[in-house]
Design a protein that fits this description.
The structure is a single chain. By secondary structure, the protein is α/β, with parallel strands linked by helices. The chain has a domain of 168 residues: Anaerobic Ribonucleotide-triphosphate Reductase Large Chain, CATH 3.20.70.20. Helix content is 44%, strand content 18%. The chain has 16 helices and 13 strands. Helix 6 links the parallel strand 3 and strand 4. Helix 3 packs across helix 10. The longest helix has 30 residues. It starts with a helix and ends in a 9-residue tail after the last strand.
Length: 453
């Protein structure tokens, strides 16, 4: 018999509560594009991307219509470009960046990620050249995203890279000051970055990935909130967690169905399903709204970190029962500018920088899309990065920093990016100096539990 209640529930999730496939991201290995000649490298990169991804947007739009499930973003991730460019006699990473951007435009995707380097244990010459080129590359492209992994639970924290990335973040913002530092909004610094993440700005095609694969990111904060609100107000925490697991199972099943069918039509393997609850500025599509449904007055109240921990865990438990190919980040995102409830909480002073940092110990990523004063010292930014990397390193989880020191803006001013990037108030940071600590350089050793071979 037809399960009419299940069909109606899915329709309501899509139409009323913003359930969508947040992104389908084609991961493409560029390892065979290496050459000593930069022009040959760029030609190989362009040809390979446009060959594999030529039908990505077209087929995704067809599936969107066939299944009536919105697929919001179509994206591409590639092998970390520091490695590809390093093969050239005279590497020109900005030229490669423009090639990636042109390929992304020509196949019609929203973003292309992988202008990246993995430097948790040290930098090669190629890594150094790519990192130095990031501000210029992001200021001269539209769809390019960049990420740098500076720490891991196995290697520790590369403090030289931390300080360098603080400088790069500030330069990226300054070169795009006419758009409120948009360059920094497309740049993320990681600890324990996964190579199968479909979400930007941190997506890249990891070294253990196949030639090409399709990774899918689903999202449904509004669906989770509605499910919680359907419970009795006196439901205990176990009932709450079970309800979240139940709805996460359904969200994941829907995402994998679309992902597998789309991958098959594209003629490539299905990669992973990322369970992350990625909010948007749209009304009702907020992780902060979930906290309110749980009983908190607003995001930032005491208890927010506990609520986020339970949410993250329940989403993963429900999703893992629906799919054997869960990967990426998988959990709840807490970006400030991309979540209507977080924007409100930050604007009203309910949510401080320190509270956000505490929440990153249990969330899916880290300090995300936070605008700070443009005159924030580089050493303070480095201190912020170091703190966040430490949380990821010690807890063996992915953490990240995507902050925007907005040139010419001060505490209380607002930055507006539009679309999924939303808007945000400029938040205060601690004025105490971190300089004497971060300029020491070297590597903070990995914790004792890294010795687990």
């Amino acid at each position: 018999m037809m399960d009419t209640s299940g069909i109606l529930e899915t329709i309501n999730m899509i139409k009323l509560y913003n359930l969508d496939i947040r992104t389908v991201t084609m991961a493409i290995s560029l390892r065979d594009c290496m050459d000593s000649d930069i022009d040959i490298v760029c030609k190989k990169i362009y040809d390979k991307i446009t060959n594999y991804a030529q039908h990505l947007v077209e087929y995704a739009n067809e599936f969107e219509n066939d299944y009536s499930i919105p697929i919001v973003n179509k994206r591409i991730s590639v092998t970390p470009i520091s490695v590809v460019g390093e093969s050239c006699v005279n590497p020109d990473y900005v030229k490669i960046a423009k090639t990636l951007d042109k390929a992304a435009k020509d196949v019609g995707v929203n973003f292309i990620g992988g202008f990246s380097a993995l430097v948790e244990k040290g930098m090669t010459k190629g890594d150094e050249l790519l990192i130095e080129s990031i501000p210029k590359a992001l200021s001269q492209t539209e769809r390019l995203c960049s990420s740098v992994n500076v720490a891991s639970s196995k290697a520790g924290i590369n403090m030289d890279a931390v300080l360098k990335m603080a400088e790069i973040i500030k330069k990226s913002s300054e070169l795009t000051k006419d758009s409120d530092g948009l360059g920094a909004a497309k740049l993320v610094v990681f600890c324990n970055s996964p190579g199968d993440n479909p979400f930007m700005a941190g997506a890249f095609c990891g070294f253990g990935e196949p030639e090409c694969a399709l990774n899918v990111g689903v999202s449904g904060p509004g669906v989770v909130r509605a499910a919680i609100e359907s419970l009795d107000k006196n439901a205990d925490m176990s009932e709450l967690a079970n309800k979240i697991k139940h709805i996460a199972y359904k969200i994941t099943s829907t995402g994998e169905l679309v992902g597998r069918k789309l991958a098959k039509k594209l003629g490539i393997p299905f990669g992973v399903i990322d369970l992350s609850l990625a909010p948007t500025p749209a009304k009702g599509d907020s992780v902060a709204g979930i906290f309110q449904a749980m009983g908190l007055e607003h995001a930032g109240a005491h208890g927010t970190t506990a609520a986020l921990a339970m949410l993250n865990d329940a989403v993963k438990k429900g999703g893992i029962m629906a799919s054997s190919h869960v990967g990426g980040l998988s959990g709840a995102f807490i970006p400030v500018s991309e979540d209507a409830g977080m924007i409100e909480a930050a604007s009203n002073g309910y949510l401080t920088f320190d509270k956000l940092e505490a929440m990153t110990s249990v969330c899916s990523v880290g300090l995300d899309m936070i605008a700070i004063p443009g005159d924030t010292p580089v050493e303070t930014i480095a201190g912020i990065i170091a703190d966040e990397m430490a949380i990821g390193m010690i807890n063996k989880k992915t953490t990240a920093v995507r902050i925007i020191p907005v040139t010419g803006k001060n505490i209380g001013d607002e930055v507006v990016y539009g679309g999924l990037l939303g808007k945000a108030p400029v938040m205060p940071v601690n004025n105490l100096s971190s300089k004497g600590f971060v300029i020491r350089g070297g590597r903070i050793p990995a914790p004792i539990h890294s010795l687990n071979n």
